[in-house]
């Protein structure tokens, strides 16, 4: 249904069968500074003792959880209940904060709730395809193959790509816009202005199904093609061509990814893509819609089940009735469930650990010692004496080496659970083999912790009543009842029947009715410029009642600008051959051979100015740190260089800054000022 | 007419507020969101001062000679730590509230004078001030539990 039987290089070579070696098979505990093998009883005992001591001494705010976009739904939901109703801490997030937090945030801001409006089949049906900061040929190879089918086939759609690099994706485009990193908001305001100027609008849709047109129109008014061209350093003619394609195509599909999500006005710019579609009423129809992309396989579940800190089932932390629903479901005092402020995002969790107020940090299925920005700082935090670090993973990583205890975890294929893809399609992944050695599923580990901690509900019964994946799934179904992501119709039995079932139907919002009703919405929204929360009173006063929000924001310059000392803008990103920090892919010989080490890409003209040839080793340095890597010439626009972020040695995140988008809290990996010197 | 007195008050309190935002940005660089947002907001307050310029030219401005009587308290120095951040944000909140109500007073005079130009300035600046207050409240609410319950020292 989704992949049409195709696999990308990582699926083909990087699957779990290839690397049963190197696995973590026993728990590890730090003794006299060294990690040594131990047994589950000892390690869980150490965790529970520290946890209980801290709860008694400091309380729930001493605990933080940093999880993943790669566990199963059942595992996230269980972790969410432990955090929110067992301990009662708001400090829980996933590494989805680094990859798709803006997808969720922009959907909430525009439509009232997370949930992808479009589906993969829209690729087959669109007349125009817009890729905003989305190098699909590298990031989603199987999806890209579906686009290539259209490009090489009859009735070719027109393709517009926004990317500062001339990627293979950009080379396939009819119009390639290469704005300077950090100027997406200006570009999108320019596109919106052109749509309004040429009256490429669906006036009836706007008046019946949206709020905020006048403010949007006033906000984008100054963004003439010439003004935008001067900010973004693009051709005004190309901008107008792109606007015309959007404005005059019958069916338009847009996708958005890291080029937008990891920039400073991330949520604002991603909302403007939603606005383009709202202005033309191109949502929820075959071939028309928005895909605010997910990166990791189960990022959608992290967001649905509340492991990113949100309340599970797309519930609104600021709506007392939603908190009551959860309290009734879990039989706990509503005051236990942290809802006094937005959940603590990952970057703030790490800040609290740095300040010593979080003293217990449980990391699962992610490698922050390579993937977070400003790595020297992250290493310092992980090494703090007063921070107890649990790292749960299938392999030893840069992060496990700094942990106090290491828990060996099973991978998919070694455990059972469900995952939900980009277009809300739910699949059941069965267990095929036993985990190696003493490794356990993440679910079993979380359940063991809950059991040993003795979490109880208000009746004195165990808080968590399930013991296996199917039990967790059934508990989650009940939790999702009546919410936009309603799983009550799904069961393991039904999921075994075919190739996956979407919640919410194939497309959302075909009728132009959005989940913005004040009693139903997931969030009351934010000021896009500062991230200030909209109060319940202000939200209700606007009476959204099913209409979508046309949220507007002016362009503001990025916090870090290139200057005399650091004249280049550095962006980071992927190569097609590796996932994240290569924890799995570097152990697949074919993938490792294809991309064994990092490099820096720069334009031919910048290389010529610095008198550099292909392969020359250079030091790329920001205010925060440096890497020494060989040069590859090509692909980048002048003034912009690119580093792949996968590598734990000469790691790109030595250079990146601790900064984030005000609404989605996603870090700004795409905008670091750097200098380049030959080594 | 005392409008000139109030325009003077507004003018100085906006400058005080913009400087205070800059000061907090400088003092809390370890909280990057605070640093960046304070910079963004301080620039917008500068823009408010500019918008006030033509109005001041028309009505004049009377700077109160006894500052302690009609003057927003100056922001002196940033504090450190979780509670320090909280207190600094609270000081900003108090200063922003002061300019907020001063805009309200000036707006009422603009109504009485049927001064369309001044009404437009007041309307856009009131929205901007509401944004400052909303952000400060959001950030204060986020910080308070950790600073008061879990932070050391």
From TrEMBL, chain B:
Highest taxon above the source species: Bacteria
Name the record gives this protein: DUF892 domain-containing protein
């Amino acid at each position: 249904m989704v992949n049409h039987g195709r696999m990308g290089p990582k699926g083909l070579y990087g699957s779990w069968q290839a690397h049963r070696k190197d696995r973590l098979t026993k728990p590890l505990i730090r003794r006299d500074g060294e990690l040594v093998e131990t047994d589950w009883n000892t390690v869980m005992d150490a965790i529970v003792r520290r946890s209980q001591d801290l709860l008694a001494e400091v309380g729930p705010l001493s605990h933080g959880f940093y999880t993943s976009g790669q566990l199963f739904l059942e595992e996230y939901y269980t972790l969410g209940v432990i955090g929110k109703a067992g301990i009662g801490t708001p400090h829980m997030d996933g590494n989805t904060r680094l990859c798709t937090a803006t997808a969720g945030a922009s959907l909430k801001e525009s439509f009232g709730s997370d949930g992808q409006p479009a589906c993969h089949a829209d690729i087959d049906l669109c007349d125009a395809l817009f890729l905003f900061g989305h190098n699909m040929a590298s990031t989603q190879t199987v999806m890209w193959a579906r686009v290539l089918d259209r490009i090489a086939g009859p009735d070719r759609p027109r393709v517009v790509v926004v990317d500062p690099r001339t990627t293979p994706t950009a080379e396939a485009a009819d119009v390639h816009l290469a704005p300077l990193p950090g100027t997406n908001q200006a570009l999108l305001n320019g596109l919106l202005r052109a749509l309004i100027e040429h009256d490429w609008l669906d006036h009836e849709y706007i008046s019946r199904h949206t709020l905020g047109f006048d403010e949007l129109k006033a906000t984008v008014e100054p963004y003439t093609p010439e003004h935008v061209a001067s900010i973004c350093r693009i051709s005004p003619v190309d901008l107008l061509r792109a606007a015309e394609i959007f404005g005059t195509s019958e069916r338009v599909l847009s996708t958005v990814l890291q080029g937008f999500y990891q920039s400073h006005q991330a949520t604002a710019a991603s909302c403007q893509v939603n606005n383009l579609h709202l202005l033309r009423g191109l949502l929820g129809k075959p071939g028309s819609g928005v895909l605010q992309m997910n990166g990791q396989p189960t990022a959608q579940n992290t967001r649905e089940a509340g492991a990113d800190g949100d309340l599970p089932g797309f519930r609104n932390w600021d709506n007392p009735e939603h908190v009551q629903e959860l309290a009734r479901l879990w039989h706990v005092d509503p005051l236990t469930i942290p809802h006094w402020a937005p959940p603590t995002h990952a970057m703030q969790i790490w800040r609290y650990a740095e300040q010593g107020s979080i003293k217990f940090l449980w990391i699962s299925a992610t490698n922050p010692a390579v993937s977070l920005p400003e790595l020297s700082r992250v290493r310092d935090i992980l090494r703090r004496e007063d921070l107890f670090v649990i790292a749960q993973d299938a392999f030893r990583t840069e992060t496990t080496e700094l942990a106090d205890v290491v828990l060996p975890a099973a991978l998919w294929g070694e455990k059972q659970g469900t995952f939900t893809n980009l277009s809300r399609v739910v699949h059941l992944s069965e267990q095929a083999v036993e985990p190696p050695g003493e490794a356990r599923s993440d679910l079993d580990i979380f359940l063991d912790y809950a059991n040993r901690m003795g979490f109880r509900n208000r009746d004195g019964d165990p808080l968590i009543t399930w013991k296996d994946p199917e039990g967790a799934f059934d508990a989650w179904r009940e939790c999702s009842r009546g919410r936009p992501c309603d799983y009550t119709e799904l069961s393991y039995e039904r999921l075994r029947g075919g190739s996956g079932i979407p919640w919410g139907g194939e497309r959302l919002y075909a009728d132009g009715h959005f989940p913005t009703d004040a009693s139903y919405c997931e969030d009351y929204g934010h000021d896009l410029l500062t991230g200030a929360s909209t109060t319940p009173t202000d939200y209700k006063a606007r009476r959204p009642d099913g209409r979508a929000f046309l949220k507007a924001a002016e362009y503001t310059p990025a916090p870090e600008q290139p200057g005399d000392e650091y004249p280049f803008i550095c962006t980071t990103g992927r190569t097609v051959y590796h996932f994240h920090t290569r924890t799995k892919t570097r152990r697949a010989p074919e993938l490792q051979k294809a991309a064994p080490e990092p490099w820096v890409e720069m334009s031919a003209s910048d290389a010529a100015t610095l008198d550099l040839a292909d392969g020359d080793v250079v030091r790329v340095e920001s205010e925060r740190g440096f890497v020494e890597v060989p040069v590859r010439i090509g692909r980048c626009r002048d003034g912009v260089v690119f580093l792949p972020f996968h590598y734990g040695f000469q790691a790109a995140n030595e250079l990146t800054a601790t900064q984030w988008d005000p609404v989605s809290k996603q870090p700004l990996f795409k905008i670091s000022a750097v200098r380049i010197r030959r080594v | 007419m005392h409008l000139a007195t109030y325009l003077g008050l507004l003018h100085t309190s906006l400058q005080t507020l913009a400087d205070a935002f800059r000061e907090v940005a400088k003092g809390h660089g370890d909280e990057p969101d605070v640093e960046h947002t304070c910079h963004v907001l301080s620039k917008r307050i500068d823009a408010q001062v500019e918008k006030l310029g033509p109005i001041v030219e028309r009505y004049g401005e009377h700077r109160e000679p006894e500052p302690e009587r009609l003057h927003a308290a100056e922001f002196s120095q940033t504090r450190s730590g979780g509670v320090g951040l909280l207190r600094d944000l609270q000081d900003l909140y108090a200063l922003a509230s002061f300019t907020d109500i001063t805009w309200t007073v000036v707006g009422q005079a603009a109504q009485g004078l049927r001064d369309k130009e001044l009404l437009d300035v007041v309307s856009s600046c009131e929205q901007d001030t509401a944004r400052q207050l909303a952000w400060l409240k959001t950030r204060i609410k986020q910080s308070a539990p950790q600073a008061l319950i879990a932070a050391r020292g």
